[in-house]
Amino acid sequence: MISPKRRSIVILIFCLCMLFGAAPSGHAEENTDGLFMYIGDSLMKAKAGDLKTVSVNMSHFSKEWNSSKKEGKKAKQVDKHLLEVEKSLKAGGDPAEINTLLSALSGSLAAYDKEQKPDDSSEGKARVKAMLPIADSLKSKVENKDFDAAKSEYQNLMSAWTDAENDVRKISVASYGEIEKYMAFVRIAITQEPADPAKAKENIAELKESINGLLNGNIKKSIKGNYSLSDVSGLLDQSKDYIEDGKSKQAISSLNQILDIWPMVEGDVSTRDSKLYSDMETKVPSSISLLQSKKPQTKEAKAIIEDLHDRLDPLLKDTNYSMWDAALILLREGLEALLIVATLLSFLKKVNQEDKQKWIWAGVAAGLAASSVLAVIINILFSRITAASSREYIEGLVGIAAVIMMLTVGAWLHSKTNVNGWNRYINKQMGEAIATGSLFSFAFISFLSIFREGAETIIFYTGMAPYMSLKQLVIGIVIALAILAIIGFIIIHYSVKVPIRLFFMAATLLIYVLSFKVLGISIHSLQVSQLISAHTIHSFPFIEWIGLYPTAETLVPQAVLILIIILAGYWIKKRNQTAL
User: Fold this and answer.
1) Cα gap 271→252, rounded to integer Å
2) In the chain, what are the domains?
3) Which of 172, 214, 313, 399 could bridge to 463 as Cys pair (CB 3.0-4.6 Å)?
4) How far apart are CA 243 and CA 247, in angstroms?
């Protein structure tokens, strides 16, 4: 029967297989993403004169292309250009010539890719098109100055937009943001007291122009750059300063910039503070409207901007892990490995087999080396996968895989809180080794102990690394190594007895708490990248340090996790009682 600890290694392999096999649906799209990556890397290497790497890349390209291509005219063009690249490489061609051939290959692959990807935007465009007659009806009511009817018609327009907005976002984030902006301006114009028919008609016209542009293929280009909530905060601050200096036009420009970049950062707010999310979408346009009035209401606009800025400020710090989280992982895994090695050495001393201790240390060295190799392999695979897929998608899945591992580790630790259970575990392992008389068996036991702890540490850090700075990660690791070195020296050289039960109980509790946090942050990552939805529970708080987000998609899995932990604890307790 597989022990819980060994089962965790199996689960690790399974999770990694699932992770590396997972990708967005669509066969052609999935494969061409990886193929473009080979071409991109080869173009850079060819410019640098590194044709050896180009040859390796093209070998991988050829293998993947031939296993996934769908025959057709465009595919034959790719075959033709690939053959030209391969011939030039074999002939030791000039790097500049190979670069030109690679560019041609990239072009033919892009044409093939476009042919294979179906146009799935037609249904979304039909939903957007349904907004146009409602917008015309709204305009008619505004022209007749029937604002009660206009407000009712606006609700119909809003319902149509709610049906279409997700499809529009997939087609163009910039168009999505533009339509959102004009929807807000129309609402403000017809609901303010008194209503502003001129401004309402102007913004309805802008709204229709944005919709028609999307339908006609004149899609608004997204603003380039990596934006964060800090940029939004900075623009709010800037607009406030402009208002204080009497520069309303510049303040309006800064506020419009917020509306342009908002679709790219809104996920970080919607999953943490739903009220602020709603207010940002309504009050920023309101501020613009106040500043655009015939008599600019600067005092009111400034008050709104200051309120939004103050409420956004606590969210500027990304939800992440601290150096203590990093230290905890290595400390927990390292202490367990240290405890196992110390117990093995003590066992050999007890049975007068001290001369075999060197084999224990040999196993430790081999385990550390194997763990290092595994770390390099996982890092390379992770880099390649994230180059071809959504990084948040991969990071979220790695985090969830880490939680599964943490559960198995926690269950194993829990089962060893009973001292007799721990002794049985060690005696069984060493008894089998002594019975066989094989020196290799002693080395293998320590190797397996170190390697499985190393494997767990690596997958945990893989899930955590994207959410913390390199400095914090390194400091955490250094702190843990220093503590481990001190404890290891004391235990091994002075034969200090470790309080087994206390150690395992504390380690179990900490690993379960960390798994709760990792699960919340991982699901939040998938929500921010729009891969899963976010249904906010308004009455629930956002608690950053524990990874608690006020959404059903994060809270339900975390509640299930707690239930699993309780049931596992009950089952292990009953099993330990039976074993006694």
Assistant:
1) 27
2) 25-116 (1.20.120.660), 122-315 (no CATH), 323-579 (no CATH)
3) 399
4) 6
Q: At CB < 8 A and 24+ separation, what contacts does 231-235 make?
A: 231/261, 231/265, 232/258, 232/261, 232/262, 232/265, 232/280, 232/312, 233/309, 233/312, 233/313, 233/316
Which residues, in sequence order, are bridge partners of residue 543?
Answer: 548
The residue to which tokens 């990694």 are assigned: 16
* Contact (CB, 8 A) for 70 and 116: yes
pLDDT for position 34: 65
Strand partners, 548: 543
Mean pLDDT of the chain: 75
φ, ψ (nearest 5 deg) of residue 387 = -70, -25
Place of tokens 């629930």: 540
Count other C-beta atoms under 10 Å from residue 538's C-beta.
Answer: 9
What is the per-residue pLDDT for 205?
92
Burial class of residue 240 (count of CB atoms within 10 Å of its CB; 0-12, 13-18, 19+) = buried
User: 336-367: buried (b, 16+ CB within 10 Å) or exposed (e) per residue?
Assistant: bbbbbbbbbbebbeeeeeeebbebbebbbebb
Q: In the block, which residue shows the tokens 């093939």?
A: 112
Residue 386 CA to residue 392 CA, distance in Å, equals: 8
Q: Are 167 and 207 in contact (CB under 8 A)?
A: no
Q: What is the pLDDT of residues 511-563, one digit of tens each?
A: 677 778 878 877 877 776 667 777 777 677 777 677 788 888 888 998 998 88
d(CA 302, CA 291): 9
User: What is the C-alpha separation between 280 and 269, in angstroms, rounded?
Assistant: 9
> Any bridge partners for residue 536, and if so which?
551
Element (H, E) at 284: helix 274-292
Tell me which residue of 323, 285, 284, 332 sits closest to 305, measured CA to CA: 284
pTM: 0.45
* 548 SS3 class: strand
- Phi and psi at residue 536, to the nearest 5°: -75, 140
- Helix %, strand %, coil % for the chain, to 5? 80, 0, 15
Residues 162, 164, 167, 171, CA torsion sign: negative
- Tokens representing residue 428 in the block: 């069984």
Helices (H), 389-436: 391-415, 419-436
Rounded Cα distance between 12 and 406, Å, is 10
Q: Is 296 helix (H, G, I), strand (E, B) or coil?
A: coil
Contact 475, 323 (CB under 8 A): yes
Of 544, 545, 526, the residue nearest 534 (C-alpha): 526
Taking the C-alpha atoms of residue 372 and residue 360, their distance in angstroms, rounded to an integer, is 19
Distance of CA 533 to the CA centre of its chain: 14
**What DSSP string runs through 290-351?**
HHHSSS--HHHHHHHHHHHHHHHGGGSSPP---HHHHHHHHHHHHHHHHHHHHHHHHHHHHT
Residue written as token pair 């207010």? 279
Task: Yes or no: say if 484 and 335 are a contact pair by the CB < 8 Å rule.
Answer: yes
What are the CA-CA distances from residue 2 to residues 8, 11, 267 (Å)? 10, 12, 43
Dmax (CA) for the chain in angstroms is 102
